Amino acid sequence: MKRRTVITVGPLLALFGMSAVSHKLLATDAPLKPLDSSQPTAKALSYVDDIADADPAVYDQSSGARCDNCLHYRDTGQSRGGCAIFPGFSVAPQGWCKGWVKKS
Ligand code: SF4
């Protein structure tokens, strides 16, 4: 490998390595606890287990936004998924919170 290639590719490989490590740290096998909407962060973000229960003052029912179409949602193959905003907790696919970001 030429020196120029090492200089160009080296930092990219380092980034991929860091990404793999951080992904591994986030992808824990520990069981997720169902997120309680009264948990302080959940409350601050108006989390609900079902969008039907969302406060119309903070949630637009016509938006179609829900956990399972949120960028932060991780399918676990179970009835509830993981969420990057609430590590260690599971969220309902039909849930929602103010942290919702459209999955592209
Ligand atoms: S960030 Fe997304 S996946 Fe997480 S609770 Fe909020 S809407 Fe659901």
Largest sheet properties: 4 strands, mixed
Strand content: 5-15%
Name of the CATH architecture of the largest domain = Irregular
Distance between the termini: 37 Å
Instruction: Tell me the radius of gyration.
Output: 18 Å
Bound molecules: iron/sulfur cluster
Low-confidence stretches: 5-26
Helices and strands: which structural class?
Answer: alpha+beta
Describe the structure.
The chain is α+β, with helices and mostly antiparallel strands. It has two domains: 1-29; 31-104, High-Potential Iron-Sulfur Protein, Chain A. The protein is built from two helices and four strands; from the N terminus they run αβαβββ. A four-stranded mixed sheet has the order 1-4-3-2, with no helix packed on it. The longest helix has 24 residues, at 3-26. The protein binds iron/sulfur cluster. Iron/sulfur cluster binds at residues 47, 67, 70, 72-73, 83, 85, 91, 95-97, 99-100. One of its GO terms (molecular function) is electron transfer activity.
